[in-house]
């Protein structure tokens, strides 16, 4: 396993573990999701360079566009929750209430 692959897989795993174990604030969950998307973006960007091909060069840009849409939707939800509940703590959010 190369050093770059190890670094990217460990960054993805650390972000996934942070998302799974650190559920206190909505902002922390969004930051962990952004870390996962960033490690995937860097992995997909370096993959065609290692294989010396130009076949999958548009895939990282598509992933980056989806990550930007996900970040804007997440921040909109964060602002809406902070306005209605007064905080971004996940324990105060109840999905059964309207």
From TrEMBL:
<keyword id="KW-0830">Ubiquinone</keyword>
<keyword id="KW-1278">Translocase</keyword>
<keyword id="KW-0999">Mitochondrion inner membrane</keyword>
<dbReference type="InterPro" id="IPR039428">
    <property type="entry name" value="NUOK/Mnh_C1-like"/>
</dbReference>
<dbReference type="GO" id="GO:0098803">
    <property type="term" value="C:respiratory chain complex"/>
</dbReference>
<keyword id="KW-0472">Membrane</keyword>
<keyword id="KW-0249">Electron transport</keyword>
<keyword id="KW-0520">NAD</keyword>
<keyword id="KW-0679">Respiratory chain</keyword>
<feature type="transmembrane region" description="Helical">
    <location>
        <begin position="61"/>
        <end position="82"/>
    </location>
</feature>
<protein>
    <recommendedName>
        <fullName>NADH-ubiquinone oxidoreductase chain 4L</fullName>
        <ecNumber>7.1.1.2</ecNumber>
    </recommendedName>
</protein>
<keyword id="KW-0496">Mitochondrion</keyword>
<dbReference type="GO" id="GO:0030964">
    <property type="term" value="C:NADH dehydrogenase complex"/>
</dbReference>
<dbReference type="GO" id="GO:0005743">
    <property type="term" value="C:mitochondrial inner membrane"/>
</dbReference>
<dbReference type="GO" id="GO:1902495">
    <property type="term" value="C:transmembrane transporter complex"/>
</dbReference>
<dbReference type="GO" id="GO:0042773">
    <property type="term" value="P:ATP synthesis coupled electron transport"/>
</dbReference>
<keyword id="KW-0812">Transmembrane</keyword>
<keyword id="KW-0813">Transport</keyword>
<dbReference type="GO" id="GO:0008137">
    <property type="term" value="F:NADH dehydrogenase (ubiquinone) activity"/>
</dbReference>
<comment type="function">
    <text>Core subunit of the mitochondrial membrane respiratory chain NADH dehydrogenase (Complex I) which catalyzes electron transfer from NADH through the respiratory chain, using ubiquinone as an electron acceptor. Part of the enzyme membrane arm which is embedded in the lipid bilayer and involved in proton translocation.</text>
</comment>
<dbReference type="Pfam" id="PF00420">
    <property type="entry name" value="Oxidored_q2"/>
</dbReference>
<feature type="transmembrane region" description="Helical">
    <location>
        <begin position="27"/>
        <end position="49"/>
    </location>
</feature>
<dbReference type="GO" id="GO:0016651">
    <property type="term" value="F:oxidoreductase activity, acting on NAD(P)H"/>
</dbReference>
<comment type="similarity">
    <text>Belongs to the complex I subunit 4L family.</text>
</comment>
<keyword id="KW-1133">Transmembrane helix</keyword>
<dbReference type="InterPro" id="IPR001133">
    <property type="entry name" value="NADH_UbQ_OxRdtase_chain4L/K"/>
</dbReference>
């Amino acid at each position: 396993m190369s050093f770059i692959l190890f670094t990217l897989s460990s960054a993805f795993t650390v972000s996934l573990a942070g998302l799974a174990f650190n559920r206190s604030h909505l902002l922390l969950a969004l930051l962990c999701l952004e870390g996962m998307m960033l490690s995937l973006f860097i992995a997909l960007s370096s993959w065609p360079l290692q294989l010396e091909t130009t076949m999958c060069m548009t895939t990282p840009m598509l992933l980056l566009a989806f990550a930007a849409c996900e970040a804007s939707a997440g921040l909109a939800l964060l602002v809406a929750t902070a306005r209605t509940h007064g905080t971004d703590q996940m324990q105060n959010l109840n999905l059964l209430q309207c």
